[in-house]
Design a protein that fits this description.
2 copies of one chain form a homodimer. Chain A has 2 domains: 158 residues, 60s Ribosomal Protein L30, Chain: A; 170 residues, PurM-like C-terminal domain (Phosphoribosyl-aminoimidazole Synthetase, Chain A, domain 2). Helix content of chain A is 32%, strand content 24%. Chain A has 12 helices and 13 strands. In chain A, helix 4 links the parallel strand 3 and strand 4.
Amino acid sequence: MTEPGSPPHRYAEAGVDLRAAERFVNRLRGVASRATRPEVLSGIGAFGGAFALQGYRQPVLVSSTDSVGTKLKLAPLTGQYRSLGHDVVNQSLNDVLVSGALPLFFLDYIASNQVSDDDRIAMVEGVAEACAAAGCALIGGETADLPGVYQPGDFDFVGFVVGAVERDEMIDGSRIRPGDALLGLPSSGLHTNGYALARQVLEVGIDGDAAAERARLEQVYPELGGTLGAALMTPHRSYIPEVRPHVARLKGMAHITGGGLPGNLPRVLPDGVCARVRWGAWEVPPLFRLIQSRGEIALGEMLEVFNMGIGMVLVVGEADADALLAAIPGAVQLGGIESSPADGTKFVLEGMP
Amino acid sequence: MTEPGSPPHRYAEAGVDLRAAERFVNRLRGVASRATRPEVLSGIGAFGGAFALQGYRQPVLVSSTDSVGTKLKLAPLTGQYRSLGHDVVNQSLNDVLVSGALPLFFLDYIASNQVSDDDRIAMVEGVAEACAAAGCALIGGETADLPGVYQPGDFDFVGFVVGAVERDEMIDGSRIRPGDALLGLPSSGLHTNGYALARQVLEVGIDGDAAAERARLEQVYPELGGTLGAALMTPHRSYIPEVRPHVARLKGMAHITGGGLPGNLPRVLPDGVCARVRWGAWEVPPLFRLIQSRGEIALGEMLEVFNMGIGMVLVVGEADADALLAAIPGAVQLGGIESSPADGTKFVLEGMP
């Protein structure tokens, strides 16, 4: 234990400086105030954020939490922390959107060790921008210094969203029937999934030689339209702007995250139906093809790890398909719903090479 | 990049096994189902958890997020993961309780590297137990494998709670007046604050020699009534059972977390008033005295880092003080509210040695 005569401990020496933390929280408060709504009753700094729910007859609150995963390993190499804020918000917005819910409020959690205040502020600025764009209030959050849990420069970044939908407008997949159409909306990149594999294959963000990793990220690939780093850091896309006007016509939605199309599309299907998707119905973007060829990865595995260019799938009645394809930029018909075969299969990808 | 002829990458080799993750999620689903409510519309596994809000006239949603901090560094040494689940829930419940809100639902986030499924299940079991005890539904969460972010055996553990209170019953401190009484409720230990300093002073959970750290934690201290490890791992206490019956009589509440009494009590006071607390009004528990003497820490710093034995402060009208002191086990009168001095001071601790 402490030797007699050693200097008294001070909390700042233990890695926590409460005064600096207070200054930092004041900066955060300013950033967070950019994403507010009239329903917000208290700012960051109260013990809990408060939101006066109004305007709903029978509100169903839909909530989700997720982190940006190991995509964050690329932030110190690219200097792009702000875009991670868009990632952490948009992925959660999409998760509640699949129930037909629009976001009310968001809270973020950043834990780190020796990540600069500026970089952490940039992350929260990204959160506030993405929240404001979605009409969502940023009502709280936590930024924790956790030396001993994180290595110097490392951090984790987690988001939590609460959305709401009228109970009788909730989308739960129960109206999905054979004959319905499957529409795919393009992803903006890997979104926030598959980075464990992508980083390994591309040899970036794996705690190797930082200069070599930076050089790989700064390399320009004509097929990617820019650097590898820019392609990998492209933020997770929010589908609210495209989907919101049509939400009353949707029977189901699947957010294509970890597990890919085969892992996520069946989650929203009722028993007795199966999704049949045609390979070739959409073009797999160059970034996925680059990862596949570099890593010599089987196509089946690629499909289970990455979104492969489709970030959201809509299930709609056949009669609505053409109108929605015309109305939503980039939407493609992936296939359709049919009766399940006897073995209960819920996902078939036909025409795979 | 990948050499020609090297074996194809598989996602499992990159530290992520989607099949094992699916089995794990099924176990989690069973655990989470122990903490539910009739309002819950979907289980874990949907993209978002859904909760049909009902029974409120003018609901205000109050939300908070926090992690257990570096208390979690003691879990691998003591084998106590389950109690961390109580920590992560109860600290958040207290944060929304100070607005008068009772919890509706909770989500947890566990990110780790090589923490066993059993230990992670134990954490979620603790979450489910604490939620069930508070009448709160566990409607979702995320367990992420993040090799590259966490060192082997390390993890982070974050919780998100949403509670609700009628708008006209919300406690916001605005009715606090000079003459009001300050009542303190005992903490159960350090709760979840000050572990950065406590671990350093007590030389446990600092990634030193594991056998030596375990021996220190297993040492019995008569004044602690057991081992140091048991004292340090005592879960953060929820004040809902004691506070709930009296919530209509409370003018303000402060949850004593990081920053201690001087940092948290002023947060709930309106302008123009000051909290005067008498040193000696409560007995500082032996664990805090042990840390102070071992670390040769100034009393003023102890008060800013630790709860020092008071985990929650209630602000009540003078006429209600005696009844509440009699009704709430362990409650003590800490002092009272007076007009602020000219310099705007909001906290005075009198009689400090």
